[in-house]
Design a protein that fits this description.
With 274 residues, the protein is α+β, with helices and mostly antiparallel strands. The chain contains four helices and 14 strands. It is elongated.
């Protein structure tokens, strides 16, 4: 055993001696930058490739710093906007409805009067006429009328809408009262109603066309009355009692849009039909 230990000790000694005799690895030489004083403009100017080789970490650090600055500025702007932004009440509607539900400005009418159709020289008989018109809701309707008869192509066909002369028996306006609460003054396309009662709602009904006005009743006194004006636009006006309100019904001779306004000084309601 002593012999084996002696051999192992000798082997380890030789191994350590061999490692100590091997040359040590040298560190890489640090490159130096030589600057020629005679050529400052040419040698001092570095291309982007050389700058990236000399400082490889610059290209990766600089964009990161810019991104961080942009993110910080955006966060500051967001905080400022949140502080200065006006908070909207979620229970308040964005669009405020109008009281009457109708447009306030009455459109200017461009009335059709007359047009002439020039026929070709081959025309001999008229068979049918087709007319398209636009309704109140914007839809288009086609009206066809079957015709029969000889025509002379030398003369044009004339389509016109002539205003009928006023009949002396039709008054320009009418004034009347329904009970003690409602006083009316009616013309062809306008209605003036004087009352001290508060208007609850106004709307129209179809078949037949009617304009409805509901007023708050001060008491439970039942009222019922009617009047037939001689103006064709509004052939009938009636008053009825419904629970806790009075209803005024104005019968109309056709479909109209209307604009309702109130004069708060004298308590008049003005209605324009168009």
């Amino acid at each position: 055993m002593k012999f084996l230990a002696l051999i192992l000790t000798l082997f380890l000694t030789l191994l350590n001696a061999e490692e100590n005799t091997q040359p040590q690895s040298t560190l890489p030489e640090i490159p130096t930058l030589s600057i020629d004083a005679n050529k400052p403009a040419q040698d001092s100017t570095q291309t982007p490739q050389n700058q990236e080789q000399l400082n490889p970490s610059a290209s990766s650090i600089e964009p990161t710093g810019i991104m961080e600055n942009m993110a910080t500025q955006e966060l500051i702007n967001t905080q400022e906007n949140n502080i200065t932004k006006k908070v909207r009440d979620p229970f308040t509607p964005i669009i405020t409805p109008k009281d009457s539900g109708q447009i306030t400005n009455t459109p200017q009418l461009d009335l059709f009067t007359k047009t002439e159709l020039i026929l070709p020289s081959t025309a001999r008989k008229i068979k049918k006429i087709t007319l398209e018109y636009q309704n109140l809701n914007g839809s288009i309707t086609t009206l066809e009328k079957e015709l029969e008869g000889d025509i002379d192509w030398h003369f044009p066909l004339i389509l016109s809408q002539e205003v009928q002369p006023k009949t002396p028996s039709i008054p320009n306006n009418e004034s009347f009262s329904l009970e003690e609460y409602f006083n009316f003054d009616i013309t062809k396309n306008s209605i003036t109603l004087k009352t001290h009662l508060a208007l609850i709602r106004d709307f129209t009904l179809a078949s037949p066309t009617r304009l409805i006005l509901d007023f708050k009743a001060p008491n439970k006194k039942p009222l019922k009355a009617s009047f037939a004006p001689k103006i064709p636009t509004i052939p009938q006006v009636s008053l009825d009692t419904h629970l806790d309100f009075y209803r005024i019904t104005l019968d109309l001779d056709g479909q109209y849009k209307y604009n309702l306004t109130k004069d708060t000084k004298i308590g008049n309601y003005a209605i324009e039909l168009y």
